């Protein structure tokens, strides 16, 4: 796979990794057929008010024998095997279905944010694919945000950039996910259709320990203001981090301090209670 002249020494660990890979791949196919994936939802809030702004949809897999398996383990396998296309179709539809239910229950100012894999960007005609899901479910585009990692942004084709522009014109928000962890140049921000930067939790966890990270975050916040972009900081776990990020000019936050990812039933209950009180 890596080309001619490349030799790999076999080790027993490789064998067990391969077995795990094929096992999980097979089990993911079963899980898709038996509708065993679920979505969790984590709020992204504005630090100024208490109004909930967005919910990020995060896929969950509870395996009957293995228990819960982390997305960081199964998403890369799904991407490598292209099963992410089928899984990603389900995720987009399910996220839109859930958002439509919340919309109809009165949460019409909220957006659902869906993670897209680079593989989906390559193999799906993005505009048609996303609009078909929205139309089928009856969700307005203004209720959707799409998260694309910085590393996938780097090798977008011109055609995909056009499609992203068309989606933005419909009212969908585009976010760069894991911002700061890739090796993109700043011209990305000048040339690509982007509305939101999501600063990776790595930066947040370092910010209270290392003043350089602190300054990088402040620079991203300043730059975003100039470019009219919104910034979300993810992975906020304690008050110290929250206060620091606020002081650096970060407005949107996401993390365990505010809420862990939750089931749709839990989110629905909470929102209903807030609207009653
Ligand atoms: P991500 O998109 O950067 O998502 C944020 C991750 O950070 C989530 O992990 C979330 O549960 C976790 N998180 C949120 N707040 C905190 C916090 O305060 N502290 C810590 N330590 N972690 C926090 P999760 O759900 O395990 O997902 C991991 C990664 O898997 C995601 O990173 C994303 O790259 C991928 N992923 C998850 N769901 C999907 C999906 O539906 N589609 C695709 N393509 N990828 C997904
Ligand atoms: Ca994300
Ligand atoms: Ca991240």
UniProtKB/TrEMBL annotation:
<feature type="domain" description="EAL">
    <location>
        <begin position="21"/>
        <end position="275"/>
    </location>
</feature>
<protein>
    <submittedName>
        <fullName>EAL domain-containing protein</fullName>
    </submittedName>
</protein>
């Amino acid at each position: 796979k890596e080309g001619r002249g490349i030799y790999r020494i076999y080790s027993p660990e490789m064998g067990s990794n391969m077995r795990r890979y094929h096992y999980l791949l097979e089990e993911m196919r079963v899980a898709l057929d038996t509708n065993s994936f679920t979505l969790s939802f984590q709020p992204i809030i504005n630090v100024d008010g208490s109004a909930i702004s967005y919910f990020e949809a995060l896929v969950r897999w509870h395996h009957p024998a293995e228990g819960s398996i982390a997305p960081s383990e199964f998403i890369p396998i799904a991407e490598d095997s292209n099963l992410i296309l089928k899984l990603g179709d389900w995720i987009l539809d399910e996220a839109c279905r859930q958002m439509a239910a919340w919309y109809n229950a009165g949460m019409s100012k909220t957006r659902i944010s869906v993670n897209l894999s680079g593989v989906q960007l390559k193999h799906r005609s993005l505009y048609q694919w996303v609009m078909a899901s929205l139309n089928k479910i009856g969700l307005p585009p203004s209720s959707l945000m799409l998260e694309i990692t910085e590393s996938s942004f780097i090798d977008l084709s011109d055609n995909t950039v056009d499609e992203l522009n068309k989606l933005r014109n419909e009212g969908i928000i585009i976010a760069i996910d894991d911002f700061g962890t890739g090796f993109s140049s700043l011209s990305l921000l000048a040339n690509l259709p982007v509305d939101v930067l999501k600063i990776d939790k790595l930066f947040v966890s370092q910010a209270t320990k290392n003043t350089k990270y602190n300054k990088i975050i402040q620079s991203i916040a300043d730059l975003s203001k100039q470019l009219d972009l919104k910034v979300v900081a993810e992975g906020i776990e304690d008050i110290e981090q929250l206060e620091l990020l606020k002081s650096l000019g970060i407005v949107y936050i996401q993390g365990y301090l505010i809420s862990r990812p939750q089931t749709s039933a839990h989110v629905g209950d909470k929102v209903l209670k807030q609207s009653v009180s």
